[in-house]
């Protein structure tokens, strides 16, 4: 396992919660500024989804990333759970996004299998399963033809909304619906797992072992998806790391931090602590 991190955390800072109503706290850093901080910390791999591109095309972005000696190990798809764009428009957005990520060298494209067309369908597990298969089928085909893999991420319920893939059985059902493809796997989000399953999230993660190819690493206290630093919540990281090794996980250990209210004066102090925590976890 190698330690990596989402570049978006170095570019954008928010106080809100991942849906309309986010409050922007500080101006964006440029792609070059963000990569410089990542390199200073010692990371050689990033999760990147196009933030900070400044209108540049994929070849230009890749040239900038390469100049820092950094590799894009995975990337994250846009989501349509809240925006509710027309289905075909969203599929086209996904295809444009994965095409960009391929140009950047990304091997894994993480997606949320929680899409639902609330205007035209009632929620049921079977209906949402079929809808997500329809949405992601062309994305999986693209990945397969370009040597990439699509990783479905475990989600969380957001009352009053029922969110598909928040239950491990749903995540497995969607992944295994693509059983004919070797280009589909699972991204286990540790924080989401803790919200849904604490104190049994490790056992749930183990259920995905045959498909697990990617991670989103962060912590919380079960009741809220805080995307915090490991050891700032109640997830048992010692047991989690042992479980990852026991199941033979071969992918990377990728931080996914979101909320950032740290003043620039000590932002990097926090990030150095995060890097040290990651090194410690990988040593267990």
What does this structure look like?
The protein has an 8-stranded parallel β-sheet with strand order 7-6-5-4-3-2-1-8. Residues 15-20 have low confidence and may be disordered. The termini are close together. β5 (149-153), α6 and β6 (184-189) form a beta-alpha-beta unit. It has 284 residues and is α/β, with parallel strands linked by helices. The chain contains 10 helices and 8 strands. The protein has one domain: TIM Barrel, CATH 3.20.20.150.
Low-confidence stretches: 15-20
Quick one: CATH superfamily?
A: Divalent-metal-dependent TIM barrel enzymes
Distance between the termini: 12 Å
**Count of DSSP-assigned helices:** 10
Which second-level CATH architecture applies?
A: Alpha-Beta Barrel
The first-level CATH class is given as Alpha Beta
Number of strands: 8
Largest sheet: 8 strands, parallel
User: What does the overall shape look like?
Assistant: globular
Mean pLDDT, as a whole number? 93
Strand content: 5-15%
Number of domains: 1
Order of helices and strands: EHHEHEHEHEHEHHEHEH
Across the major sheet, the strand order is 7-6-5-4-3-2-1-8
Determine the oligomeric state from the structure: single chain
C-alpha Rg (nearest Å):
18 Å
Give the proportion of residues in helices: 40-55%
CATH topology: TIM Barrel
């Amino acid at each position: 396992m190698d330690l990596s991190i989402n570049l978006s955390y170095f570019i954008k800072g928010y106080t809100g919660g991942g849906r309309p109503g986010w409050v922007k706290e500080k101006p964006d850093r440029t792609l070059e500024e963000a990569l410089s901080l990542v390199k200073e910390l010692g990371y050689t791999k990033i999760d990147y989804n196009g933030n900070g591109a400044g209108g540049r095309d994929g070849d230009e972005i890749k040239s900038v990333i390469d100049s820092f000696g950094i590799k894009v190990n995975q990337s994250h798809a846009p989501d349509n759970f809240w925006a509710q764009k027309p289905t075909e428009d969203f599929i086209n957005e996904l295809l444009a996004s994965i095409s960009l990520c391929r140009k950047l060298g990304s091997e894994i494209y993480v997606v949320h299998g929680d899409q639902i067309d609330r205007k035209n369908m009632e929620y049921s597990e079977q209906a949402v399963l079929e809808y997500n298969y329809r949405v992601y089928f062309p994305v999986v085909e693209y990945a397969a033809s370009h040597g990439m893999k699509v990783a479905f991420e475990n989600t969380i319920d957001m009352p009053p909304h029922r969110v598909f893939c928040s239950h491990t059985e749903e995540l497995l059902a969607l992944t295994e619906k693509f059983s004919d493809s070797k280009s589909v796997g699972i991204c286990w989000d540790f924080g989401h797992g803790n919200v849904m399953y604490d104190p049994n999230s490790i056992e749930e993660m183990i259920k995905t072992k045959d498909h697990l190819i990617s991670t989103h690493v962060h912590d919380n206290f079960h009741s809220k998806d805080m995307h915090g630093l490991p050891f700032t919540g109640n997830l048992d990281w010692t047991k989690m790391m042992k479980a990852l090794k026991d199941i033979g996980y071969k992918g990377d250990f990728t931080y996914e931090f979101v909320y950032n209210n740290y003043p620039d004066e000590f932002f990097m102090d926090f990030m150095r602590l995060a890097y040290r925590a990651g090194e410690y976890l990988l040593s267990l």
